[in-house]
Amino acid sequence: MINALGSPQSLLLLGGTSEIGLAVAERFVGDRTRRVVLAGRDPVALRSAGERLAAAAAPASVEVTVLEFDALDRTSHAAVVDRAFAGGDVDVALIAFGVLGEQERAERDAEHAVEVVTVDFTAAVSVGVPLAQALRAQGHGSLVVLSSVAGERPRRSNFVYGAAKAGLDAFATGLGDALRGSGVHVLVVRPGFVRTRMTAHLPAAPLSTTPEAVATAIVAGVRWRKETIWVPSVLRLVMSVLRHLPRAVFRRLPI
């Protein structure tokens, strides 16, 4: 349960080795979160992430549970959610898994394009529905969904990824509306270009940000029960302009 100071006591991180997700987890355990469930594919990397969180919690202790989670194995998603909630209530659940993919390859290789959309959108829906049900059943909690400004108006340079994020954003926003009055809060996070391992091979974009900055915004968004945040916040204004540019103008922008 959220304590009297407004701090969550437990966290479920789907995408347990995500740089943004772990930055969020570090901030929570550095405060008063004392139970974390890390769900992901690589058991060695998950154990390392658990050690990182233990260090962030010191001198207090944190209980870290590791669960196997594969975004592409949709038949296992409901069971993963059940196991995550078996240890007690989940105050914050964060959907942080995803892939960037290779745009040029996706334009030639349908299998690659479908994999990007499956991981970034379909899998999030597949795990998001049972997750929302579990949160609704316990009557409280925050569901945080990592979307992207790429989904607000997909660009030529990454339209497969942008299309997947557009679908995810619409789903998460609608889910937040569906859960109103249940005690469950949904936060949709729209970062710009984040400097991570996933984007290390790309040139930095204007208004680029860091996992730590995104994490700080997420923690504040959960505390204040925001519905949507942009990181950095100025992107809200930027995207408001870009969304309404004529297509002929938009396609010529160097972004």
TrEMBL record:
Source domain of life: Bacteria
Keyword Oxidoreductase on entry: yes
InterPro entries according to UniProt: NAD(P)-bd_dom_sf, Sc_DH/Rdtase_CS, SDR_fam
CDD domains, A to Z: SDR_c
Keywords annotated in UniProt: Oxidoreductase
Gene Ontology MF annotations: oxidoreductase activity
Pfam families, sorted: adh_short (PF00106)
Similarity annotation: Belongs to the short-chain dehydrogenases/reductases (SDR) family.
Protein name: Decaprenylphospho-beta-D-erythro-pentofuranosid-2-ulose 2-reductase
High-level lineage: Bacteria, Bacillati, Actinomycetota, Actinomycetes, Geodermatophilales
